[in-house]
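Submission checklist for the structure archive. All mandatory fields must be present; incomplete records are returned to the submitter.

[x] Identifier: DUF2653 family protein
[x] Organism: Paenibacillus nanensis
[x] Residue count: 96
[x] Sequence attached
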Amino acid sequence: MVRIYTDEIINAICLHTAERRGIQPTDVEVQLGYDEEYGITAEMWVGGRSQYLITANLLEAIEQYLFSHYNRRVFRSDISLGIDEEAEEFWAEFPG
């Protein structure tokens, strides 16, 4: 299994959002978090407006990021999200 960590997950979300909305990735701010009910989530700010992303949104962004930046076709169902609580680091794991 291969992992990417917090910074790359945030980059994936920023790049995916920018592509979908026709804006620059630097116009997107993201903070990852954990919710008891929804699992790993993110709060995203674009143009001063806040939006919450659930796990499905994160997996979509990661899937696209892996394809566009690593030329790897990994399906959402093969991606696992987790948290290393000691390191305070989020991770996405997928088959290598």
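[x] Structure attached
Curator remark: Strands lie at 2-5, 28-35, 39-46, 49-53, 80-84, 89-94. The radius of gyration is 13 Å.
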